[in-house]
Design brief:
By secondary structure, the chain is mainly α. It has one domain. Helices cover about 80% and strands about 0% of the residues. The protein has six helices and no strands. Helix 1 crosses helix 3 and helix 4 packs antiparallel against helix 5. The termini are close together. About 15% of the residues are buried. Pfam families: DGCR6. InterPro entries: Gonadal (IPR010849). Belongs to the gonadal family.
């Protein structure tokens, strides 16, 4: 367990050095880093993130197919300037993606992953995305 912990700690330091993101570095204090490391060593966090990513990819593909279907319908009706007609559809897509982000935040908050809570603050979401990226980078190691 200590070897795994040390591996995650080293990978996190390398990840942060590579990112060179002052907001991310400020958010990931040493105590938060330690908490994140413990969550990752215990094992379920990587599986949760992997499942959430798979669900996100599925949802994105589903929405893309729906969008293409809508465009095809409009064109078959002789509507070739689809910008106006697609605005409402695209707004609904954005709303669904926002709901998906909220679900992901809730899932990771329930799993006690540090810095995950429901927010619409772009800076916090960027930090959360970086943490997810780091977790995914460890998937094959843990």
């Amino acid at each position: 367990m200590d070897a795994k912990r040390e591996l995650v700690r080293t990978r996190l330091k390398l990840f942060l050095a590579k990112k060179k993101d002052s907001e991310l570095n400020a958010a990931l204090t040493s105590s938060i880093q330690q908490d994140l490391i413990e969550r990752l060593v215990e094992g379920t966090t990587c599986a949760i993130v992997s499942s959430l990513r798979d669900l996100q990819k599925f949802k994105e593909n589903e929405l893309l197919e729906e969008r293409e279907k809508k465009l095809t319908e409009l064109r078959s009706q002789g509507i070739f300037d689809t910008n106006e007609a697609m605005k409402e559809f695209d707004l609904n897509v954005l709303k669904e993606l926002d709901e998906l982000i909220t679900e992901q935040q809730n899932s990771l908050a329930c799993a006690h992953v540090p810095l995950f809570y429901t927010t619409s603050d772009p800076k916090q979401i960027k930090i959360q995305m970086a943490i997810m990226e780091f977790i995914e980078s460890l998937a094959n190691l843990l």
